[in-house]
Amino acid sequence: KPVILWLRRDLRLADHPALTAAVAEGAPVIPVFIRDEQVEALGAAPRWRLERGLEVFARSLAARGSRLILRQGPAAEVLDALIAETGAGAVHWTRAYDPGARDRDGAIKSDLKARGIAARSFAGHLLFEPWTVSTGAGGFYRVFTPYWKAVRGRPVGPLLPPPEHLPAPDRWPASDALEDWQLGATMHRGAAVLARHTEAGEAAAQARLDRFCDAAIAQYQDRRDFPAEPVTSGLSEYLSLGEISPYRCWHQAQRQRDQLGGSGPETFLKELAWREFAYHLMFHSPHILTGNWRPEWDDFPWREDPGAADVLAWKQGRTGVVFVDAAMRELWVTGKMHNRARMIVASFLTKHLMTHWRVGQAWFEETLTDWDPASNAMGWQWAAGSGPDAAPYFRIFNPDTQLKRFDPDGAYARAWIAEGQKSPPETALDFFQAVPRRWRLAPGAPYPDPVIELGEGRKRALAAYESRKSMG
Ligand code: FAD
C-alpha cells in the first residue's frame, strides 16, 4: 500500500527521517503538499518564498522519478481524499511545533489511527525535540545559558543520504498546478528585486553552508555583529522551510570546530541552539506568540497602531535614523535582515517609538522570507523587554552609537541609503525599485529628518517605564 508523505516545512531529500522511513517501506511514495489554513495564514513574503521552494523541490522529486502532488483545502479532508483515491495505508510527516499545527496534526493522527491508517510523525525540523530537554526540577528552560549547557553535548539526528529514486505509484493522483496557486500574488513588492536575493532549494542551501564553513565560520565569533560583512551563514530561510536540516548544519560546524578549533564554529553552534531555544519556549508556552511573556508588561502604555505616521516611517525605511532605515530597506530588498540590525529596529520601534512589539512582529511576519514563528516571537519579546531572558527595557540601544560601532566605515549605510550619494550602489537603488508606488519614495529626495530625536525618545520610553513601575 502506498505511503503518503505529507510535506510541510521539510522541502528536502537529505536528512529527512519521514521520507527515509517512507522509502524503506518498499511501497510507492506519494509526496503531497497541502495548501491549508496554515498556508493561507502566511504573510506575503513567506508565501512567495514558499512558492519558490515548492518549485525547486518539485523539480528535485521529478529528477528521482517522483512527483509533488499539490492539493488545497483542510488537511484532514485532503488526506482523506488522497487515501481514498490511492489506497494508501500510511501517512508520514515531519513534526511542527506551533500550536495551530500541533492541534491539526494531533486530530489527524488520532482520526487516521482510529481508521487503521498508520499515521507517523518524525523529527526533522529541530535538533532537540522540545519535550526532551528539561531542567533539574523537571520544567522547561526560560533562560538560554542553562539550556545551552543542557544541549550542547547531546547527539543530534543522523545525516541521511537523499534517496536515489522514490518508488512511484502506478497511477499518480491529480495535482493542482503551482502557477495556478499564485502564492506570491499578495506580495506588493518588487518581486524581481527580491528574486535576485533568493535562491531557493536544497542545493543552494548546501552550497551556502559549504561556503560559510570554508570562508566565514572562522571569523564568525569576531565579525558576526557587523552587518556589512558577509560573515553570517544566511541559512535562516533554508532552515525555515526545511530546505536544509539543522542536523547537517550542526554536524558540519562540529567538524569545522574539531578541525580548525577557534571559537567561530562553537559560536555558530550556539546560534543554532538559539533557534532550538525559541522552539522550546514556543512549545512549552505558546502564549509567547501572541502576548507578553511577562504579564506585568500588559499594563505598559504601548501604542499599538500599525498605521501611525511614525510606524509607517519605520516600515518604509524613512525614519531619518540611518541604522534603522538601512536595516528596513535591507529587509524590503532582500527579505532578510542582519541579526544586529533586527535588534536595533526592534528596540527603536518598541522603545523610541513606544510601539507594541506585536506591530513589529506582524510586519516581519509579512515581509521576511526567513520568517519563523518561534524565532520571530522570541526576538521581538527579547528586544521589547517583555520576554523570557530578555534585554531589560531600560537598556535602550542608541542606533547612532550602534552604527558607529558596528558600521565604522559606513559600508552598511551606503549599501542601503541612496539619498545623499552621488552614485549610490545598486542595492540602495533597488529599494526604490521594490517599493510600492503609493509609498511615494524617490532616491533623489532629501533624506528625511528623524521622526523622533533620539535623546527625547529615550527619555519618553524611560519615563513610561518608571511610571509603570510606580503604578505596579
Ligand atoms: P547566522 O548568524 O548564520 O545563524 C545561524 C542560524 O542560527 C540562523 O540561520 C538561525 O536559524 C539561528 N539563529 C541565529 N540567531 C538566532 C536568534 N537570535 N534567534 C533564533 N535563531 C537564531 N530568525 C529567523 O529565522 N526568522 C525570524 O522570523 C526571525 N525574526 C527575528 C526577529 C527579531 C526582532 C530578532 C532580534 C531576531 C529574529 N531572528 C529570526 C533571529 C536572527 O536574527 C536570524 O535567525 C538571523 O539573522 C539569520 O541570519 P543567518 O542565517 O545569517 O544567521
From TrEMBL:
Record bears the keyword Cell wall biogenesis/degradation: no
Highest taxon of the lineage: Bacteria
Keyword Nucleus: no
Protein family membership: Belongs to the DNA photolyase family.
GO molecular function, one term: deoxyribodipyrimidine photo-lyase activity
InterPro entries per record: Crypto/Photolyase_FAD-like_sf, Crypto/Photolyase_N_sf, Cryptochr/Photolyase_FAD-bd, Cryptochrome/DNA_photolyase_1, DNA_photolyase_1_CS_C, DNA_photolyase_N, Rossmann-like_a/b/a_fold
Top EC category: lyase
Keywords: Chromophore, FAD, Flavoprotein, Lyase
Domain Photolyase/cryptochrome alpha/beta: 1-127
Descriptive protein name: Deoxyribodipyrimidine photo-lyase
Annotated EC: 4.1.99.3
Pfam families (UniProt xref): DNA_photolyase (PF00875), FAD_binding_7 (PF03441)
The organism of origin for this protein: Pseudodonghicola flavimaris
PROSITE patterns assigned: DNA_PHOTOLYASES_1_2, PHR_CRY_ALPHA_BETA
PANTHER family: CRYPTOCHROME, CRYPTOCHROME CIRCADIAN CLOCK 5 ISOFORM X1
Cofactor(s) in the UniProt record: (6R)-5,10-methylene-5,6,7,8-tetrahydrofolate; FAD
